[in-house]
Specification:
Blueprint lengths: L8 E5 L11 H13 L4 E4 L11 H15 L5 E4 L5 H13 L4 E5 L8 H12 L6 E5 L1 H4 L5 H7 L5 E6 L4 H11 L4 E4 L5 H6 L4 E4 L6 H12 L3 H18 L6 H9 L16 H11 L4
Parallel strand pairs: 1-2, 1-8, 2-3, 3-4, 4-5, 5-6, 6-7
Helix pairs in contact: 1-2, 3-4, 4-6, 6-7, 9-10, 10-12, 11-12
């Protein structure tokens, strides 16, 4: 059976704009319109960049509902449903499916961690409780657990596990993933700084933080690579590196929310324990964003 490819190119890991109380839905609608107008190939809500750890169940439902209402049938709406409690992750997945999501992004369990066998059992349980195509998300710097290539190769045999977002930062590991999965699943970059290197070993795009603020640039970069213009893709990757450095000068999504504020896309408000960007980071962002506006 040929697996569904959720997207190729650029998916934005969208921020969640906050009001003094609750979600700033007007800003969220503006962000969704901005992404679609700039040609992104998919949108991810409630990923790490969306601060889901600080959101209530009601807020999550409202965010998914708005994203689906705005973009369903235009581009895929992918929902982050990961948890370090397998039963909760299953519940999240079912809820996203009920609300009309096109796909799921599931981060590896964090804090309590698990073995590689635990990862296989965790993802197998989630996948068996939803019909939605599912992308695994490996980001050991945040979760404390690294999904090994051999582990994902096992998971890629499951019909509705269709991809992996790789943010280990280890190109040797990522290349091994690409070699093991071949046509069984889709590899995506989870790291804006090495999207084109990952695509060069078989990746089909990126789930991007940078595309919150420069979607057209990221789209043009991934499109160039997919169209075979490798030199243009390389040049756009290198051109973007100083901005990527600024966007990750502090813990994500602190800098990208400040960048959205500087561009007038959202107010940049965060929820504790995250705090606002420092003056040094803000100045760095101003300098780099000025190159794109």
């Amino acid at each position: 059976m040929k697996k569904k490819v959720l997207f190729e190119g650029t998916a934005t890991a969208l921020i969640t704009p906050f009001a003094k109380k609750g979600i700033d839905f007007k800003a969220l609608e503006k962000l969704l319109d901005f992404q679609y107008a700039n040609g992104v190939n998919a949108v991810v809500v409630l990923g790490t960049t969306g601060e889901p750890a600080t959101l209530t169940a009601e807020e999550k439902e409202a965010i998914i509902t708005l994203a689906v209402r705005k973009l369903k049938g235009k581009i895929p709406v992918i929902v982050g449903v990961g948890a370090n409690n397998t039963e909760q992750a299953i519940k999240n997945a079912r809820e996203a499916e009920r609300l009309g999501a096109d796909g799921l992004l599931v981060v590896t369990p964090y804090y309590n961690k698990c073995t590689q066998d635990g990862l296989v059992k965790h993802y197998t349980a989630i996948a068996s409780n939803t019909n939605l195509p599912t992308i695994c998300y490996n980001v050991p710097s945040r979760t404390g657990v690294n999904m090994l290539p051999e582990t994902f190769a096992k998971l890629a045999e499951i019909d509705n596990i269709v991809g992996i977002k790789e943010a280990s930062g280890n190109m040797a590991q990522i290349a091994k993933v690409a070699n093991l999965i071949k046509n069984k699943a889709t590899l995506y970059s989870g790291d804006d700084g090495i999207t084109i290197p990952i695509m060069s070993v078989g990746g089909k795009g990126v789930i991007s933080v940078a595309s919150n603020v420069v979607p057209a640039h990221v789209v043009s970069m991934t499109t160039a690579f997919l169209n075979g213009d490798y030199m243009l893709a390389r040049d756009k990757q290198l051109e973007m590196l100083p901005l990527v450095d600024a966007l990750f000068a502090e813990v994500n999504p602190i800098p990208v929310k400040k960048a959205c504020e500087l561009l007038g896309l959202a107010n940049g408000q965060l929820r504790l324990p995250l705090t606002t960007a420092t003056k040094k980071t803000t100045e760095k962002l101003k300098k780099e964003l000025a190159k794109y506006v």
